[in-house]
Specification:
Strand content: 15-25%
Helix content: 25-40%
Structural class: alpha+beta
Number of strands: 3
Oligomer: single chain
Length: about 70
Amino acid sequence: MSIRYELIVYWSDPDQSFVVEVPELPGCMADGATYEDAVANARQVIAEWIDTARELGRTIPEPKGRLAYA
């Protein structure tokens, strides 16, 4: 699966892990002990998010790429 959604990756001291947020998919987050693990886990969670949305008949947002923040 090709990731086209923006990923925000950061270190979380309380969790002692890297956290990945996918802002275009509400509630879609993953974590991992390393940066690479966190991104790999995010790939899996994105696929599951999309599968679940399809099963529920919900709209799947088109990836917009880099988001602009004010």
